[in-house]
Amino acid sequence: MFPTLPVKEKSVYLHEALRELGLNIKEIIPLQGDGSARKFLRIKTPKESFILILPQPGEYGLREAQAYYRIGRFLKSHGIPVPDILAYRDQDGLLLVEDLGDLRLCEHPERERLYPEAVKILVNLQALTPRFPRETTLETLYYDRDLIWHKEILYFEKWYLKIHRKKTWFIETRSLLEDFLQESVDCFTDTVVLHRDFQSRNLMVKNGRLYVIDFQGARIGPPSYDLASLLWDPYVERIPTERLLDLYLRLTSRDRQTFLEEFKRISIFRLMQALGAFVKLSSQGKSWFRDYIPRAEKRLRKLLPSYLRKALFE
Predict the structure, then answer these.
(1) Beta bridge partners of 212
(2) β-bridge mates for residue 49, sequence order
(3) What's the total number of domains in the chain?
(4) Residue 5 above 70 pLDDT?
């Protein structure tokens, strides 16, 4: 299996695989990844360039690559702007995709102008819910109570509270969070397709247009989740949240009061997940994630009910 090969053999294997794909290689440039254990290489040929995605080690890496391929093809065929998938090798999980460049939405000097386009893409994604190929999901199909508890709340508790803050929560705090979670799940209004990480670093800008990447974790869940990921995104200091919320509600005709209650609660879970991820990734040598912890903390404190803010931060 490719990811487990020694470095020298991996290099030989990689060059042979690229030749089999018919590429005349001029240069291979490693790219900095984000929170994933996958590796990304820019493959330059005399005329153009591509991105080669190398799977993370193990069976999970192969399943992740397959999910990327299958979900990516579905999204592309239904008009969602994702990179073209030029080749996929099932035996080793290698993916060759369109090179969208290096400019992410969070780095764009006129990003505020592009945010409405991101909301429109999200609305179009959610409209695909009846046709979404549910058998392609990488992990659980649904973003539900169990996933929130284990992948967001307990993840936050382990990495942010225990490791970063050196704080242990009490049984009373756990009980408060369990009750808050159940109340939140009872507020969920609908189920739609989720990207699950719809934020500015996963929105590339090429020739003035937005493209969605890192969609292999797509599943089914509440409509506010991806919008919360976008509008409370810790990578960006100022986001026109109210204006974009209004745009989303106009485009979807959802009941404002009901949706905003769900949105606020989902935003809390999303920021918990982000804080856990920032601490974990910075502890794994990706120190730049530490820079985003204060902004995520500030936003989470703002959204939490006073009794939870006191239990978690005081």
Answers:
(1) 203
(2) 44
(3) 2
(4) no
Q: Which residues contact 153 (CB under 8 A, 6 or more apart)?
A: 177, 181, 269, 272
User: Domain end: 56, 73, 98, which one?
Assistant: 98
- The answer to whether the beta carbons of residues 2 and 93 sit under 8 Å apart is yes
- Residue whose structure tokens are 């794994």: 284
Instruction: Give the CATH number, domain containing residue 260.
Output: 3.90.1200.10
Q: Distance between CA 262 and CA 274 in Å, rounded?
A: 18
Residue 267 belongs to what domain range?
105-313
Share of the chain above pLDDT 70, in %: 97
For the segment 174-217, what is each residue's pLDDT rounded down to a tens digit? 999 999 999 999 999 899 999 999 999 999 999 999 999 999 99
Span between the terminal Cα atoms of the chain, in Å: 49
pTM of the model: 0.94
Q: What is the mean pLDDT of the chain?
A: 94
In contact, 94 and 86? CB cutoff 8 Å: no
Find the CATH number of the domain harbouring 21.
Answer: 3.30.200.20
- Of 70, 98, 126, the residue that ends a domain is 98
Find the length of the chain: 314
Pair 89, 143 in one domain: no
CA-closest candidate to residue 148, choices 311, 266, 297, 274: 266
Q: What integer is the mean pLDDT of 258-271?
A: 98
pLDDT, tens only, 15-24: 888 888 888 8
In order, the DSSP letters of 20-89 are HTT---SEEEEE---S-S-EEEEEE-SS-EEEEEEPPSSHHHHHHHHHHHHHHHHHHHTT-----EEEEE
Pair (57, 115) in one structural domain: no
Quick one: DSSP state of residue 199? Answer: S
Q: Are residues 11 and 70 in the same domain?
A: yes
Q: Do residues 163 and 292 share a domain?
A: yes
Beta bridge partners of residue 50, listed in sequence order: 43, 98
Q: Which two tokens stand for residue 189?
A: 């209004």
